[in-house]
Design brief:
By secondary structure, this protein is an alpha+beta fold. The protein has 5 helices and 4 strands. It has one domain.
């Protein structure tokens, strides 16, 4: 276990990692629409609102996470570790809607995955 922790944080300060992780909102709300080849989303987190897009469900979730990390100014070397776990994932039913091309719009709430701490 210690070796895994050491490998993950080799270039990061564990205390800084926890501080950056704590900086992220506990939950986000995402409204999205399907527009041709893209899924376009509006993200609300705390008092922040921003947009992102992706070509498919997986890319969209990746871009949602990236938008949150960027909005909360998480440094790239810490994003690399946090992103391995995708801090924000939609519930299974909502992910099915994202993958279903016949669903034109929906929304979901995602809570920060505490397992990454």
């Amino acid at each position: 276990m210690f070796n895994l922790f050491k490998r993950i944080f080799m270039h990061q300060d564990p205390e800084a990692f926890i501080a950056y992780l704590s900086k992220l909102p506990s939950s986000i709300q995402v409204k999205w629409i399907r527009d041709g080849k893209f899924i376009i989303g509006w993200i609300s987190a705390d008092d922040n609102e921003f947009m992102t897009q992706g070509k498919n469900a997986e890319e969209f979730i990746e871009m949602v996470n990236d938008a949150v990390y960027t909005a909360y100014e998480i440094p790239d070397n810490y994003v690399t570790v946090i992103n391995k776990y995708k801090a924000y994932k939609p519930p299974i039913e909502e992910m099915k809607k994202l993958k279903d091309g016949s669903v034109s719009k929906a929304n979901f709430n995602a809570k920060k995955e505490v397992a990454i701490a």
